[in-house]
Amino acid sequence: MAFSRHELENLLRLVTLTKDVELNCEECLALVAEFAEQHLAGKSIRAGLQAVEEHLAVCDECREEYEALQQTLAEIDGDL
Ligand SMILES: [Zn+2]
Q: Superkingdom of this entry's organism (predicted)?
């Protein structure tokens, strides 16, 4: 299978990104509150938090934590 130059560049970029931003669960959970707040506020997720998003995409444990937190924040928001 042959890749075009453009596809190859994209692929390489993805690989690099994944290596750069790999978080462990502890690091991810430390940022998850900030991530959830920004996400709910409709703000764009700044670069540092993209690592969280990527970790959540592959880690069920942290995603559950994030979803619970998001739920809580949404309820608090609704009360105001
Ligand atoms: Zn995790």
A: Bacteria
C-alpha 58 – ligand 1 centre gap (Å): 8
CA of 54 to the centre of ligand 1 (A): 10
CB 70 within 8 A of CB 41: no
- CA–CA distance, 37 with 42 (Å, rounded to integer): 9
| Helix 47-58 × helix 60-79 angle, to 10° | 120
pLDDT tens per residue, range 32-72: 988 988 888 888 887 778 889 999 999 999 999 999 998 99
Q: How far is the CA of 59 from the centre of ligand 1 (A)?
A: 5
